[in-house]
Design a protein that fits this description.
- The structure is a single chain.
- The chain is α/β, with parallel strands linked by helices.
- It folds into two domains: 259 residues, Spore Coat Polysaccharide Biosynthesis Protein SpsA, Chain A, CATH 3.90.550; 186 residues, Spore Coat Polysaccharide Biosynthesis Protein SpsA, Chain A.
- The protein is built from 14 helices and 24 strands.
- Strands 15, 16, 17, 18, 19, 20, 21, 22, 23 and 24 form a ten-stranded mixed beta sheet that branches.
Length: 543
């Protein structure tokens, strides 16, 4: 057996199976009435598949009570004090920026960039504190896989101007395309401006020349040296413009997305329009099992969910390969107590995995398909194949468990109650990485159980399901189930696959073989699998 590999310095890691890590960051000097709404929208943010941390630089004269309240009960919030007292004036006409304030904000943003780099975040989401974000903003932007992308919002920069976007074509704020050396008359300029603005009013993702205020930045862009600091020979005003010019010089493209526009509270008077925005975007659940901050996701512009069945049978879907002698029989025996049928895809096992499935699930309707050749090197192919098999039996609910995952005992009765709720489409649960029968791992590298992920999804015929097309870490469900009504639940899932040293070693070498450059996951996360002295926490039974 190869010698255990250790790493001299582990990077921060917030979850297993390549949960994408995002640092949400904002410099804050804001009126309380506006800041309260911004922080509220952060609390409502959908983060399925993500591990998030928050960083604020509090630039108020005195520490902000609202920021401190936001951090209560959260262990992923970092608040830093600003550089000192300054006068920043904004009124019902416009915001008045002095040069010294602009470059102070630039320093703050570069501090966030350095933090994201030092802690190996996959993305940095820089967002201004006068925005109320749509709950799907972050998940959607991450899913675009762009190096730099901003969500578009519209603002009357002055009361007598029409609403204009936070993105532009070129220069200081040019809103039309033109070729080098091209001379345009006023009518042509007006026509091109109209074309650009019309484009931004259609849902889509578009290449632009400038952006700011609600921007997702990838780890790749950060590693290339992106920054907000001043370019000394550039006479454009504003740190975002220097950022965008530097990005282009580095060979990075800038994109604007228009699917989920935030609401911009540029003036306090605009708070009056926020109620309509919230009613249009947010629908809060009040049923049992709804955790604080969980929200209803409503797909489509009509505000109506796709038609759904009212029955509540549960179909287990599982992908297996060479599971004999591991946890498969134990997992299936437990699941057999609450499922109504099973769909199992065997990826060309060469042991008796198939026989274990048939024997253990006797008396339960079973669809079992075995591939002639293995495809485990391309996970998305298998996940899509399993999904198609499961939907092919016309299920009510699809519960996807891996062959080493098992709910705690109270799920035997509670899952059926959840399936009977006609108002929910997706249930998310916490996954605990068990290091032995009575302990799970918890340290700065392994905290998957602090976050909720989907395990049980209502099948809705006619809904267009879309996948992450990556060979590894593609997700067990289609990526756009985040558009459906989602509820967090306190039931816990045990992940048994890490309990044996041999299992951990095998997983490590599998990740090193399939993703040697950490393209689809986090390299430091893979290395941390073999940490010889992890912190373990006792598993306690919940009533």
């Amino acid at each position: 057996m190869p010698a255990l590999v250790t790493h001299p310095k582990f990077e921060v890691m917030k979850g297993l199976f390549a949960m994408t890590r995002v640092l949400i960051a904002s410099p804050v000097r804001q009126k309380s009435s506006i800041l309260k709404e911004f922080l509220w929208s952060l609390d409502q943010m959908e983060t399925t598949g993500l591990t998030v941390e928050y960083a604020f630089i509090d630039d108020h004269d005195e520490p902000s009570d609202l920021l401190q309240q936001f951090a209560v009960g959260k262990d992923n919030v970092h608040i830093f004090r600003g550089e000192g007292k300054d006068i920043y004036h904004c009124d019902e006409n416009q915001h008045h920026w002095r040069q010294d304030l602009i470059w102070k904000v630039a320093r703050y943003k570069d501090r966030f960039i350095q933090m994201a780099k030092d802690k190996s975040f996959d993305y940095l989401f820089l967002v201004d504190s006068d925005l109320v974000l749509h709950p799907k903003t972050l998940v959607h932007l991450v899913g675009l896989r762009k190096d730099i992308v901003s969500e578009v919002f519209w603002t009357r920069w002055k009361p007598d101007l029409p609403p204009l976007p936070n993105v532009w074509v070129a220069g200081h704020y040019r809103l039309y395309h033109m070729k080098q050396g091209e001379v345009l008359d006023e009518q042509t300029i007006e026509r091109r401006v109209k074309a650009f603005l019309t484009m931004l009013k259609q849902p889509g993702t578009y290449k632009v020349g400038g952006l700011g205020a609600c921007t997702l930045i990838s780890r790749r862009a950060i590693s290339m040296g992106i920054s907000f600091c001043e370019i000394y020979n550039l006479d454009l005003v504003g740190e975002d413009r220097h950022f965008c010019v530097r990005a282009a010089a580095l060979g990075l493209e800038l994109f604007a997305d228009t699917h989920y526009p935030p609401y911009h509270i540029y003036r306090e008077s605009e708070l009056s329009g926020l109620k309509d925005y919230k009613e249009r975007v947010f629908r809060t659940f009040t049923e049992n099992n709804l955790s604080p901050g969980a929200i209803s996701r409503t797909p489509g512009e009509s505000g109506k969910s796709p038609p759904r069945k009212k029955s509540g049978s549960i179909t287990l879907a599982m992908l297996v390969r060479n599971e004999a002698g591991r946890y498969l029989e134990r997992v299936l025996k437990h699941a057999a107590q609450y499922i109504d049928r099973a769909v199992i895809l065997d990826d060309a096992s060469d042991d008796n995995t198939v026989e274990i499935c048939r024997d253990t699930l006797q008396g339960i309707p079973l669809t079992l398909v075995s591939n002639a050749k293995p495809s485990f090197h391309n996970e998305v192919v298998l996940r899509k194949q399993l999904w198609n098999l499961a939907t092919g039996v016309n299920p009510d609910w699809i519960l996807i468990l891996d062959a080493d995952e098992m709910f705690e005992d109270r799920a035997v009765t509670e899952l059926r109650l959840l399936a009977a709720n006609p108002e929910v489409d997706v249930y998310t649960f916490r996954l605990y990485d068990m290091w032995d029968e009575n302990h799970y791992r918890e340290d700065e590298y392994w905290r998957a159980h602090h976050f909720y992920r989907p395990f049980m999804v209502r099948y809705i015929p006619g809904f267009h399901y879309v996948w992450y097309e990556t060979p590894l870490h593609c997700g067990r469900f289609p990526k756009n189930i985040t558009e459906l009504k989602t509820v967090r639940n306190s039931l816990r899932v045990k992940h048994l696959g890490w309990m044996k040293p041999a299992d951990r070693l095998a997983k490590y070498y599998r990740y090193m073989k399939l993703d040697p450059l950490g393209r689809y996951g986090i390299m430091a996360q893979y290395l941390s699998i073999l940490d010889p002295k992890p912190n373990l926490v006792a598993w306690h039974k919940q009533q």
